[in-house]
User: Which sequence fits this backbone?
Protein backbone atom coordinates (compact mmCIF):
# COMPACT_ATOMS: atom_id res chain seq x y z
CA UNK A 1 0.00 0.00 0.00
CA UNK A 2 1.49 3.34 -0.96
CA UNK A 3 1.78 6.29 1.39
CA UNK A 4 -1.10 8.36 0.00
CA UNK A 5 -3.49 5.42 0.17
CA UNK A 6 -2.56 4.66 3.77
CA UNK A 7 -3.00 8.33 4.71
CA UNK A 8 -6.44 8.44 3.06
CA UNK A 9 -7.42 5.23 4.82
CA UNK A 10 -6.30 6.63 8.16
CA UNK A 11 -8.26 9.85 7.66
CA UNK A 12 -11.34 7.84 6.68
CA UNK A 13 -11.03 5.54 9.72
CA UNK A 14 -10.68 8.54 12.02
CA UNK A 15 -13.83 9.99 10.45
CA UNK A 16 -15.74 6.74 10.97
CA UNK A 17 -14.53 6.35 14.55
CA UNK A 18 -15.58 9.92 15.37
CA UNK A 19 -19.01 9.74 13.73
CA UNK A 20 -20.21 6.20 14.48
CA UNK A 21 -21.13 6.88 18.15
CA UNK A 22 -23.14 9.96 17.19
CA UNK A 23 -24.95 8.17 14.39
CA UNK A 24 -25.74 5.14 16.55
CA UNK A 25 -27.04 7.40 19.29
CA UNK A 26 -29.45 9.12 16.92
CA UNK A 27 -30.53 5.99 15.07
CA UNK A 28 -31.36 4.14 18.25
CA UNK A 29 -34.93 4.51 19.41
CA UNK A 30 -33.93 4.78 23.06
CA UNK A 31 -34.95 8.24 24.31
CA UNK A 32 -33.48 7.72 27.79
CA UNK A 33 -29.93 8.57 26.81
CA UNK A 34 -28.00 10.46 29.48
CA UNK A 35 -27.13 14.02 28.38
CA UNK A 36 -23.46 13.42 29.12
CA UNK A 37 -23.35 10.60 26.57
CA UNK A 38 -24.94 12.88 24.00
CA UNK A 39 -22.31 15.55 24.75
CA UNK A 40 -19.46 13.05 24.40
CA UNK A 41 -20.76 11.83 21.05
CA UNK A 42 -21.22 15.40 19.80
CA UNK A 43 -17.71 16.34 20.91
CA UNK A 44 -16.31 13.34 19.03
CA UNK A 45 -17.89 14.67 15.83
CA UNK A 46 -16.26 18.05 16.43
CA UNK A 47 -12.96 16.33 17.14
CA UNK A 48 -13.00 14.99 13.61
CA UNK A 49 -12.53 18.54 12.30
CA UNK A 50 -9.38 18.94 14.37
CA UNK A 51 -7.80 15.54 13.92
CA UNK A 52 -6.85 15.72 10.23
CA UNK A 53 -3.87 18.09 10.69
CA UNK A 54 -2.58 15.83 13.44
CA UNK A 55 -2.88 12.76 11.22
CA UNK A 56 -1.07 14.56 8.40
CA UNK A 57 1.71 15.69 10.73
CA UNK A 58 2.20 12.20 12.11
CA UNK A 59 2.20 10.49 8.74
CA UNK A 60 4.05 12.98 6.51
CA UNK A 61 7.53 14.41 6.89
CA UNK A 62 6.69 17.31 4.55
CA UNK A 63 3.73 18.32 6.71
CA UNK A 64 5.89 18.18 9.85
CA UNK A 65 8.45 20.44 8.21
CA UNK A 66 5.74 22.86 7.04
CA UNK A 67 4.18 22.97 10.52
CA UNK A 68 7.60 23.62 12.02
CA UNK A 69 8.21 26.57 9.66
CA UNK A 70 4.72 27.94 10.26
CA UNK A 71 4.89 27.69 14.04
CA UNK A 72 8.42 29.09 14.15
CA UNK A 73 7.39 32.13 12.13
CA UNK A 74 4.22 32.61 14.17
CA UNK A 75 6.18 32.44 17.43
CA UNK A 76 8.99 34.76 16.26
CA UNK A 77 7.43 38.01 17.58
CA UNK A 78 6.86 36.45 21.00
CA UNK A 79 10.33 34.92 21.24
CA UNK A 80 11.97 38.24 20.37
CA UNK A 81 9.97 39.92 23.15
CA UNK A 82 11.01 37.16 25.56
CA UNK A 83 14.71 37.57 24.75
CA UNK A 84 14.50 41.35 25.24
CA UNK A 85 12.81 40.99 28.62
CA UNK A 86 15.01 38.18 29.86
CA UNK A 87 18.31 39.86 28.95
CA UNK A 88 19.73 41.56 32.09
CA UNK A 89 20.74 45.20 31.87
CA UNK A 90 18.44 46.22 29.01
Assistant:
Amino acid sequence: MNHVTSMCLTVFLCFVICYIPYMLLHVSSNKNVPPVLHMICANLTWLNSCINPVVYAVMSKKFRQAYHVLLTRAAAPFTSLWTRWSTPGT
In short: Residues 61-90 form one domain.
